[in-house]
Amino acid sequence: MNETAITRCKQFREIVQQGLGNGASAAMFLAKRDDRKGKSMARRWINDLSIADATPYAAYINRRQIMAGAAGLIGATALGLGRANAQALVPNSWEEITSYNNYYEFGTGKEDPANNAGSLTTSPWTVEVDGLVDNPGTYDLAELIDGLEVEERVYRFRCVEAWSMVIPWNGIELADILTRVGVQEGANYVAFETVMRPDEMPGLHYPVLDWPYREGLRLDEAMHPLTIMATGIYGRPIPNQNGAPIRLVVPWKYGFKSIKSISRITLTRDEPFASWNRANPREYGFYSNVNPEVDHPRWSQATERRVGAGLFAGRQPTLMFNGYEAEVASLYEGMDLAAYY
Ligand code: MTE
């Protein structure tokens, strides 16, 4: 390795160590990741953020984050990871992201969550962690995520209803939280539950789903560096209608997998209950990976409408795994994606 490459690797290691924030060596960090179950990638995700992402909310993106993103790219190149992830994704506006929502606990209309979710008390907030974990318990949210790195991730977001946005999330890798609570041998899946408070969530009075809203991931999907628990958008605390105070974001899956306002995380041996899958298994699979080649029984998934693109903008092609194929396709090697939709 030449001198420049060594310097770049050092820079990368420093970035990783800063991310750990506990003085542990990068080698330990990478080894720990490799030890984890499944095929997680032994590196942190390289931020998509670039100067081209400037928006009216650019003020919230400080110089440090932009510099960290740029340094990360240098490190990634040195490690031969390429620049496949460095795209100029232009995020939707704050107004679009926070006024056009799906959160059925607050009503089934797209504007209902923005109008009704103000009633949800999000502080204090506890998350029950149970099942196959070393440290089960009811955690105060602040305690659960204390000291873990919050990163900005500009991700494509594709709803199964065939609309899409680009959202600049702030969040923590789910893998960091799971590592903190200690995943036990025998755990194959992670189950999530949304808080159920009929007094604060008017939609719960209607049997739209078998409440509480529940979702699940295979453990290797949960440990993947792209999978985050979001606590913010545009550097602001995540609004109630988007899933305050903490929600899952799995960018290569249809949006309904990204469960909001999480109050319980359970490590399980068997595939857990997932609300939409259970409500209509023919229309909504457990995996629900974005796939333009596998249509919903009632509509095509080949294209999507970008929210905010304007009346005359055409539909855009939907990308395999929502554009994250290079990062996640290996998780599904050998699987028939038409059967496991
Ligand atoms: N989580 C809960 N608890 N309840 C919901 O109704 N809707 C899902 C998902 N998470 C939903 C949920 C669906 S269908 C989508 S598309 C996304 O949230 C929408 O996220 P957004 O409103 O932040 O865009």
- Large-scale geometry: globular
Query: Any idea what the CATH superfamily is called?
Result: Oxidoreductase, molybdopterin-binding domain
What is the C-alpha radius of gyration, as a whole number of Å? 19 Å
Question: Which series of helices and strands comes N to C?
Answer: HHHHHEEHEEHEEHEEEEHEEH
Content-based structural category: alpha+beta
Q: Output the number of helix runs.
A: 10
Number of domains: 1
Which fold name corresponds to the CATH topology? Sulfite Oxidase, Chain A, domain 2
Roughly how many Å apart are the termini? 43 Å
Write down the oligomeric state: single chain
Helix content: 10-25%
Beta-strand proportion: 15-25%
The average pLDDT value, as a whole number, equals: 82
How are the SSEs placed, and which strands pair?
Layout lengths: L2 H18 L5 H10 L27 H16 L15 H6 L12 H5 L9 E6 L5 E4 H5 L5 E8 L4 E11 H8 L7 E6 L19 E5 H4 L5 E6 L2 E2 L9 E3 L12 E7 L6 H5 L23 E4 L9 E2 L7 H4 L13
Parallel strand pairs: 1-10, 4-11
Antiparallel strand pairs: 1-2, 3-4, 4-7, 5-6, 5-10, 7-8, 7-9, 11-12
Helix pairs in contact: 1-3
The structure holds ligand MTE.
The site of ligand MTE has 15 residues, from loops.
Concise overview:
This protein has a single domain (94-332), classed as Alpha-Beta Complex (Sulfite Oxidase, Chain A, domain 2). The chain contains 10 helices and 12 strands.
